[in-house]
Design goal:
Blueprint: H1 2-12, E1 14-17, E2 22-25, H2 38-48, H3 50-63, E3 69-77, E4 84-92, H4 97-108, E5 120-129
Antiparallel strand pairs: 1-5, 2-5, 3-4, 3-5
């Protein structure tokens, strides 16, 4: 029961996805095919994974109650499938390898439909803060 109450408290804390920081079109000369709504679609898709990112954070808090801060995530999205081909972490305030691996695995499950038609690299900052 104690763990269940802790999870409920965690689900009420703030997980925010920062404003879209950077979007790079990596295709050769395909800029005209790029949908300008793609950044908002990617951010929306990340926000739909909030519960999964929160599970990663809940486990990190079990290991360290003081874990908090930003995780800067880089998503590389395939043009034809919309699937994430790689996830990079450019910066993290939470020094927990299991947490970072969980964030990576969760982000790898993201698929953008319809696909963006060009390879896309999106930079996002996830903010994790525990509030009682």
């Amino acid at each position: 029961m104690q763990g269940l109450r802790m999870i409920n408290k965690i689900s009420k804390r703030a997980l925010t996805v920062s404003a879209f920081l950077l979007l790079q079109v990596l295709a050769y000369g395909c800029i005209k095919e790029f949908d300008l709504k793609t950044p908002a679609r990617i951010q929306s898709r990340i926000e739909k994974e909030t519960a999964e990112f929160e599970k990663c954070y809940a486990k990190a808090l079990e290991r360290n109650r003081d874990a908090a801060g930003d995780v800067a995530v880089i998503l590389n999205i395939e043009a034809d499938t919309g699937s994430v081909s790689s996830v990079g972490i450019s910066r993290t305030d939470i020094d927990d390898d299991e947490f970072i691996e969980c964030i990576r695995n969760t982000a790898m499950e993201i698929t953008l439909l319809p696909p963006p038609n060009v390879p896309v690299e999106g930079h996002y900052t996830l903010n994790f803060l525990y509030r009682e």
